[in-house]
Protein backbone atom coordinates (compact mmCIF):
# COMPACT_ATOMS: atom_id res chain seq x y z
CA UNK A 1 0.00 0.00 0.00
CA UNK A 2 2.55 2.52 1.08
CA UNK A 3 6.11 2.64 2.48
CA UNK A 4 8.78 5.02 3.75
CA UNK A 5 12.54 5.18 3.06
CA UNK A 6 14.88 7.03 5.45
CA UNK A 7 18.62 7.64 5.25
CA UNK A 8 19.94 6.99 8.78
CA UNK A 9 23.19 8.70 7.97
CA UNK A 10 21.41 12.00 8.05
CA UNK A 11 19.43 11.23 11.24
CA UNK A 12 17.79 13.05 12.92
CA UNK A 13 17.65 15.72 10.24
CA UNK A 14 16.58 13.26 7.65
CA UNK A 15 13.06 13.57 6.35
CA UNK A 16 11.20 10.34 5.59
CA UNK A 17 10.51 9.83 1.96
CA UNK A 18 7.12 8.15 1.78
CA UNK A 19 5.34 6.65 -1.14
CA UNK A 20 1.76 5.43 -1.01
CA UNK A 21 -1.06 4.28 -3.17
CA UNK A 22 -3.37 7.30 -3.50
CA UNK A 23 -6.14 5.33 -5.20
CA UNK A 24 -6.25 2.74 -2.43
CA UNK A 25 -6.55 5.35 0.33
CA UNK A 26 -9.21 7.24 -1.62
CA UNK A 27 -11.17 4.03 -2.12
CA UNK A 28 -11.12 3.15 1.59
CA UNK A 29 -12.17 6.70 2.57
CA UNK A 30 -15.04 6.64 0.09
CA UNK A 31 -16.34 3.29 1.34
CA UNK A 32 -16.14 4.42 4.97
CA UNK A 33 -18.02 7.67 4.26
CA UNK A 34 -20.67 5.82 2.30
CA UNK A 35 -21.25 3.34 5.14
CA UNK A 36 -21.64 6.18 7.66
CA UNK A 37 -24.02 7.98 5.29
CA UNK A 38 -26.23 4.88 4.86
CA UNK A 39 -26.31 4.31 8.62
CA UNK A 40 -27.33 7.87 9.42
CA UNK A 41 -29.92 7.91 6.66
CA UNK A 42 -31.56 4.73 7.95
CA UNK A 43 -31.61 6.18 11.46
CA UNK A 44 -33.32 9.35 10.27
CA UNK A 45 -35.86 7.47 8.16
CA UNK A 46 -36.70 5.09 10.97
CA UNK A 47 -36.89 7.96 13.43
CA UNK A 48 -34.77 6.19 16.00
CA UNK A 49 -31.54 6.73 17.87
CA UNK A 50 -29.31 4.45 19.88
CA UNK A 51 -30.37 4.45 23.52
CA UNK A 52 -28.93 3.19 26.76
CA UNK A 53 -29.06 -0.49 27.59
CA UNK A 54 -28.52 -1.52 24.01
CA UNK A 55 -32.20 -0.93 23.01
CA UNK A 56 -33.92 1.39 20.55
CA UNK A 57 -36.12 4.32 21.59
CA UNK A 58 -38.41 6.55 19.44
CA UNK A 59 -36.88 9.88 18.46
CA UNK A 60 -38.49 11.89 21.27
CA UNK A 61 -38.85 15.61 20.71
CA UNK A 62 -41.71 17.15 18.70
CA UNK A 63 -41.06 20.28 16.68
CA UNK A 64 -43.10 22.87 14.82
CA UNK A 65 -43.29 23.09 11.07
CA UNK A 66 -42.40 26.75 10.58
CA UNK A 67 -43.59 26.76 6.98
CA UNK A 68 -47.17 27.38 8.17
CA UNK A 69 -48.53 30.92 7.99
CA UNK A 70 -48.48 32.59 11.41
CA UNK A 71 -50.71 35.59 10.64
CA UNK A 72 -54.36 35.38 9.65
CA UNK A 73 -56.99 37.97 8.77
CA UNK A 74 -60.73 37.43 8.96
CA UNK A 75 -63.75 39.62 8.41
CA UNK A 76 -66.27 40.22 11.16
CA UNK A 77 -68.94 37.53 11.07
CA UNK A 78 -66.79 35.13 9.04
CA UNK A 79 -64.90 32.09 10.45
CA UNK A 80 -61.23 32.56 11.31
CA UNK A 81 -58.63 29.76 11.21
CA UNK A 82 -55.16 29.42 12.75
CA UNK A 83 -53.17 26.41 11.52
CA UNK A 84 -50.46 24.82 13.70
CA UNK A 85 -48.43 21.89 12.35
CA UNK A 86 -46.46 19.72 14.80
CA UNK A 87 -44.07 16.96 13.71
CA UNK A 88 -43.23 13.87 15.79
CA UNK A 89 -46.06 14.59 18.23
CA UNK A 90 -46.40 10.96 19.41
CA UNK A 91 -48.57 10.88 22.54
CA UNK A 92 -48.21 14.57 23.42
CA UNK A 93 -51.18 16.96 23.44
CA UNK A 94 -51.59 20.21 21.52
CA UNK A 95 -53.31 23.14 23.24
CA UNK A 96 -54.47 26.53 22.00
CA UNK A 97 -54.04 29.41 24.47
CA UNK A 98 -55.21 33.02 24.18
CA UNK A 99 -52.16 35.10 25.06
CA UNK A 100 -53.79 38.21 26.51
CA UNK A 101 -55.41 36.38 29.43
CA UNK A 102 -53.60 33.00 29.22
CA UNK A 103 -56.97 31.31 28.82
CA UNK A 104 -56.77 27.68 27.65
CA UNK A 105 -59.20 27.41 24.75
CA UNK A 106 -58.66 23.83 23.58
CA UNK A 107 -56.65 20.74 24.52
CA UNK A 108 -56.48 18.17 21.77
CA UNK A 109 -59.89 18.26 20.12
CA UNK A 110 -61.69 19.22 23.34
CA UNK A 111 -62.83 22.79 24.00
CA UNK A 112 -62.19 24.25 27.47
CA UNK A 113 -63.92 27.58 26.93
CA UNK A 114 -67.48 28.61 27.66
CA UNK A 115 -67.41 30.47 24.35
CA UNK A 116 -68.71 27.93 21.84
CA UNK A 117 -67.20 29.90 18.96
CA UNK A 118 -63.81 28.30 19.68
CA UNK A 119 -63.08 24.77 18.48
CA UNK A 120 -60.06 22.62 17.58
CA UNK A 121 -60.02 20.77 14.27
CA UNK A 122 -57.80 17.74 13.68
CA UNK A 123 -57.89 14.80 11.29
CA UNK A 124 -56.54 11.40 12.32
CA UNK A 125 -53.02 10.87 11.05
CA UNK A 126 -52.53 14.56 10.33
CA UNK A 127 -49.85 16.81 11.83
CA UNK A 128 -52.11 19.86 11.67
CA UNK A 129 -54.08 21.26 14.62
CA UNK A 130 -56.39 24.11 13.66
CA UNK A 131 -58.08 26.64 15.92
CA UNK A 132 -61.41 27.81 14.50
CA UNK A 133 -63.19 30.96 15.68
CA UNK A 134 -66.64 31.23 14.16
CA UNK A 135 -68.03 33.76 13.77
CA UNK A 136 -65.06 36.06 14.40
CA UNK A 137 -65.55 39.31 16.31
CA UNK A 138 -63.26 42.37 16.63
CA UNK A 139 -62.44 41.42 20.23
CA UNK A 140 -60.90 38.16 18.96
CA UNK A 141 -57.96 40.04 17.46
CA UNK A 142 -54.68 39.26 19.19
CA UNK A 143 -51.99 36.64 19.76
CA UNK A 144 -52.73 32.93 20.24
CA UNK A 145 -50.25 30.21 21.22
CA UNK A 146 -50.07 26.67 19.93
CA UNK A 147 -48.51 24.73 22.82
CA UNK A 148 -47.18 21.16 23.00
CA UNK A 149 -47.11 19.27 26.30
CA UNK A 150 -43.40 18.45 26.28
CA UNK A 151 -41.14 19.01 29.27
CA UNK A 152 -40.31 21.83 29.06
CA UNK A 153 -43.28 22.95 27.00
CA UNK A 154 -42.77 24.39 23.55
CA UNK A 155 -45.07 26.91 21.91
CA UNK A 156 -45.51 28.91 18.73
CA UNK A 157 -47.32 32.25 18.50
CA UNK A 158 -49.94 33.18 15.89
CA UNK A 159 -51.59 36.56 15.30
CA UNK A 160 -55.24 36.94 14.34
CA UNK A 161 -56.62 40.21 12.98
CA UNK A 162 -60.38 40.63 12.68
CA UNK A 163 -61.39 43.52 10.44
CA UNK A 164 -64.67 45.09 9.45
CA UNK A 165 -65.11 44.29 5.78
CA UNK A 166 -66.64 47.42 4.30
CA UNK A 167 -67.28 48.43 0.74
CA UNK A 168 -65.99 51.73 -0.59
CA UNK A 169 -67.20 53.74 -3.58
CA UNK A 170 -64.18 55.51 -5.00
CA UNK A 171 -66.02 58.63 -6.18
CA UNK A 172 -66.71 59.76 -2.62
CA UNK A 173 -69.97 60.50 -0.78
CA UNK A 174 -71.35 62.80 -3.51
CA UNK A 175 -71.11 62.88 -7.28
CA UNK A 176 -72.09 65.70 -9.65
CA UNK A 177 -72.75 64.80 -13.28
CA UNK A 178 -74.07 66.92 -16.11
CA UNK A 179 -77.11 65.60 -17.95
CA UNK A 180 -76.10 63.60 -21.00
CA UNK A 181 -72.82 62.44 -19.46
CA UNK A 182 -72.13 58.95 -18.10
CA UNK A 183 -72.35 57.92 -14.45
CA UNK A 184 -69.38 55.70 -13.61
CA UNK A 185 -69.31 54.23 -10.09
CA UNK A 186 -66.56 51.90 -8.85
CA UNK A 187 -67.04 49.85 -5.67
CA UNK A 188 -64.27 47.95 -3.84
CA UNK A 189 -64.92 45.44 -1.04
CA UNK A 190 -62.07 46.35 1.30
CA UNK A 191 -60.60 43.92 3.84
CA UNK A 192 -62.68 41.04 2.56
CA UNK A 193 -60.54 37.90 3.10
CA UNK A 194 -62.37 36.08 0.32
CA UNK A 195 -63.83 37.45 -2.91
CA UNK A 196 -67.56 38.17 -2.54
CA UNK A 197 -69.87 35.76 -4.31
CA UNK A 198 -71.93 38.71 -5.59
CA UNK A 199 -72.10 42.52 -5.46
CA UNK A 200 -75.51 44.17 -5.86
CA UNK A 201 -76.20 47.78 -6.81
CA UNK A 202 -79.24 49.60 -5.43
CA UNK A 203 -80.86 52.92 -6.28
CA UNK A 204 -82.73 53.87 -3.17
CA UNK A 205 -84.34 50.66 -1.92
CA UNK A 206 -84.61 49.03 -5.34
CA UNK A 207 -82.04 46.90 -7.14
CA UNK A 208 -80.77 48.71 -10.24
CA UNK A 209 -83.07 47.53 -13.03
CA UNK A 210 -81.32 46.81 -16.31
CA UNK A 211 -84.53 46.20 -18.24
CA UNK A 212 -86.36 49.34 -17.14
CA UNK A 213 -83.76 51.65 -18.60
CA UNK A 214 -81.25 50.87 -21.31
CA UNK A 215 -77.61 51.86 -21.18
CA UNK A 216 -76.91 50.30 -17.76
CA UNK A 217 -74.08 47.80 -17.32
CA UNK A 218 -72.29 46.23 -14.35
CA UNK A 219 -68.84 44.65 -14.45
CA UNK A 220 -67.72 42.62 -11.42
CA UNK A 221 -64.21 41.26 -10.90
CA UNK A 222 -64.19 38.81 -8.01
CA UNK A 223 -60.41 38.50 -7.95
CA UNK A 224 -59.96 42.22 -7.27
CA UNK A 225 -63.23 42.47 -5.28
CA UNK A 226 -64.33 45.30 -7.57
CA UNK A 227 -67.64 46.17 -9.24
CA UNK A 228 -68.33 48.98 -11.70
CA UNK A 229 -71.74 50.46 -12.47
CA UNK A 230 -72.02 52.42 -15.72
CA UNK A 231 -75.13 54.44 -16.60
CA UNK A 232 -74.88 55.97 -20.07
CA UNK A 233 -76.45 59.32 -20.97
CA UNK A 234 -77.55 60.23 -17.47
CA UNK A 235 -80.78 62.19 -17.06
CA UNK A 236 -82.04 64.18 -14.06
CA UNK A 237 -84.33 61.30 -13.06
CA UNK A 238 -81.19 59.15 -12.62
CA UNK A 239 -80.26 61.23 -9.58
CA UNK A 240 -80.50 59.48 -6.24
CA UNK A 241 -78.76 57.43 -3.58
CA UNK A 242 -76.77 54.54 -5.08
CA UNK A 243 -75.61 51.70 -2.83
CA UNK A 244 -73.00 48.99 -3.42
CA UNK A 245 -73.74 45.85 -1.37
CA UNK A 246 -71.19 42.97 -1.51
CA UNK A 247 -72.23 39.60 -0.11
CA UNK A 248 -69.60 39.56 2.66
CA UNK A 249 -69.06 43.26 3.41
CA UNK A 250 -70.91 46.26 4.73
CA UNK A 251 -72.50 48.38 2.02
CA UNK A 252 -71.43 51.83 0.85
CA UNK A 253 -73.51 54.62 -0.68
CA UNK A 254 -73.06 57.69 -2.85
CA UNK A 255 -75.50 60.49 -3.68
CA UNK A 256 -75.56 61.24 -7.41
CA UNK A 257 -76.72 64.64 -8.69
CA UNK A 258 -77.49 64.89 -12.40
CA UNK A 259 -77.50 68.61 -13.26
CA UNK A 260 -79.44 70.11 -16.17
CA UNK A 261 -77.06 72.72 -17.53
CA UNK A 262 -76.00 74.17 -14.18
CA UNK A 263 -72.46 72.99 -14.77
CA UNK A 264 -70.56 74.29 -17.82
CA UNK A 265 -68.41 71.18 -18.32
CA UNK A 266 -69.76 67.80 -19.39
CA UNK A 267 -67.72 65.83 -16.87
CA UNK A 268 -68.38 64.07 -13.61
CA UNK A 269 -66.81 65.22 -10.39
CA UNK A 270 -67.11 64.19 -6.78
CA UNK A 271 -66.91 67.78 -5.56
CA UNK A 272 -67.73 71.31 -6.78
CA UNK A 273 -64.99 73.59 -8.17
CA UNK A 274 -62.37 74.82 -5.68
CA UNK A 275 -63.83 77.42 -3.28
CA UNK A 276 -61.07 79.89 -4.02
CA UNK A 277 -61.91 79.97 -7.74
CA UNK A 278 -65.63 80.35 -7.01
CA UNK A 279 -64.88 83.19 -4.64
CA UNK A 280 -62.61 85.05 -7.05
CA UNK A 281 -65.17 84.71 -9.86
CA UNK A 282 -67.96 85.94 -7.57
CA UNK A 283 -65.96 88.93 -6.35
CA UNK A 284 -65.00 89.96 -9.88
CA UNK A 285 -68.56 89.78 -11.20
CA UNK A 286 -69.88 91.63 -8.14
CA UNK A 287 -67.43 94.50 -8.58
CA UNK A 288 -68.31 94.81 -12.26
CA UNK A 289 -72.03 94.75 -11.49
CA UNK A 290 -71.66 97.28 -8.68
CA UNK A 291 -69.76 99.70 -10.88
CA UNK A 292 -72.25 99.41 -13.74
CA UNK A 293 -75.54 99.59 -11.83
CA UNK A 294 -76.99 101.15 -8.73
CA UNK A 295 -77.26 98.54 -5.97
CA UNK A 296 -79.38 99.04 -2.91
CA UNK A 297 -77.57 99.48 0.38
CA UNK A 298 -79.13 96.37 1.95
CA UNK A 299 -77.69 94.32 -0.92
CA UNK A 300 -74.32 96.04 -1.20
CA UNK A 301 -73.44 95.81 2.50
CA UNK A 302 -73.60 91.98 2.69
CA UNK A 303 -71.58 91.82 -0.52
CA UNK A 304 -68.91 94.04 0.99
CA UNK A 305 -68.78 91.84 4.07
CA UNK A 306 -68.45 88.74 1.94
CA UNK A 307 -65.69 90.30 -0.16
CA UNK A 308 -63.84 91.38 2.98
CA UNK A 309 -64.12 87.95 4.51
CA UNK A 310 -62.94 86.28 1.31
CA UNK A 311 -60.01 88.64 1.04
CA UNK A 312 -58.90 87.97 4.60
CA UNK A 313 -59.26 84.24 4.09
CA UNK A 314 -57.11 84.31 0.96
CA UNK A 315 -54.42 86.56 2.45
CA UNK A 316 -54.16 84.40 5.53
CA UNK A 317 -54.28 84.53 9.26
CA UNK A 318 -50.93 86.30 9.50
CA UNK A 319 -52.21 89.36 7.67
CA UNK A 320 -55.36 89.29 9.78
CA UNK A 321 -53.38 89.30 13.02
CA UNK A 322 -51.18 92.10 11.72
CA UNK A 323 -54.24 94.14 10.74
CA UNK A 324 -55.83 93.68 14.16
CA UNK A 325 -52.60 94.71 15.85
CA UNK A 326 -52.29 97.79 13.62
CA UNK A 327 -55.89 98.84 14.25
CA UNK A 328 -55.42 98.46 18.00
CA UNK A 329 -52.33 100.67 17.86
CA UNK A 330 -54.26 103.35 15.98
CA UNK A 331 -57.09 103.01 18.48
CA UNK A 332 -54.72 103.47 21.43
CA UNK A 333 -53.14 106.47 19.70
CA UNK A 334 -56.53 108.14 19.35
CA UNK A 335 -57.27 107.44 23.01
CA UNK A 336 -53.93 108.94 24.06
CA UNK A 337 -54.51 112.03 21.94
CA UNK A 338 -57.98 112.43 23.44
CA UNK A 339 -56.61 112.20 26.97
CA UNK A 340 -53.90 114.76 26.19
CA UNK A 341 -56.54 117.21 25.01
TrEMBL record:
Residues 62-149, 152-255 form the Ig-like domain. The chain crosses the membrane at residues 303-327. InterPro entries: Ig-like_dom, Ig-like_dom_sf, Ig-like_fold, Ig_sub, Ig_sub2, Ig_V-set, Zig-8. Keywords: Membrane, Transmembrane, Transmembrane helix. CDD domains: Ig (cd00096). One of its GO terms (cellular component) is neuron projection membrane. One of its GO terms (biological process) is synapse organization. Pfam families: Ig_3, V-set. This is (African queen) hypothetical protein.
Amino acid sequence: MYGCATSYADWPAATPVCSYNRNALRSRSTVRNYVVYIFLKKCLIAGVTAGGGGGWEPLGQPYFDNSTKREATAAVGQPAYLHCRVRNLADRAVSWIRKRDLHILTVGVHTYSSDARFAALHADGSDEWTLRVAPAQPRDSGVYECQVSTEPKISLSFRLTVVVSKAEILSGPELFVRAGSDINLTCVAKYAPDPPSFIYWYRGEQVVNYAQRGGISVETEQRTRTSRLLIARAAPHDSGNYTCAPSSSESASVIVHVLSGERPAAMQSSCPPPPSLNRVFFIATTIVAASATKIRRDVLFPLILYITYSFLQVIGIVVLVFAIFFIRQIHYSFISMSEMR
